[in-house]
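Exercise 7.
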Amino acid sequence: LLLRKVLEQKGYEVTHAVNGVDALERFKETEFRVVISDWMMPEMDGIELCERLRESAAGYVYVILLSAKSQREDSLGAYEAGVDDFLTKPLDREELLARLKVAHRVLAAEDSLRRKQEELKLAGERLANMNDRLTLASRRFEELFSDLPVACFTFNREGLIHEWNCAAAELFGAHPESALMKPVWEA
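Solution. The predicted structure, written as tokens, is:
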């Protein structure tokens, strides 16, 4: 309750759960971005809660674990289990607020990355659509160009032939494969 009061005074919206099972149920209803949990709780401890949150979350959840355990191996075990941050009790309010700023930066970076992935996905879809249209237009042009009754060919700035229709093949006596990518003056 003290933690809730400190966080609310700093402008954070807080949802309080009485234990790990309650926290997981609340998380299933509303996916929170930051979870602050005690390590030792009845029914489900903070480590198991962290693991279960990781399994069920659609996005990234920043988990801060509070504990009276202060040994190095305890914090290392917590990090190994997937906890993002570990604070020992008694809780230093300023340190908690600093860690929440870190959580905000991490989550903002994750949100930015997710937006960029969505933008790339949409750009990829648009590009695929444009490629399909270009392929169709190219086929239509090729069919139209090929069947023209007039000898036609196209070439680039260097004079290399890119298209050579059937009428050109008949008129000049050169099959398209033999004329393509050759200079006009040679064909």
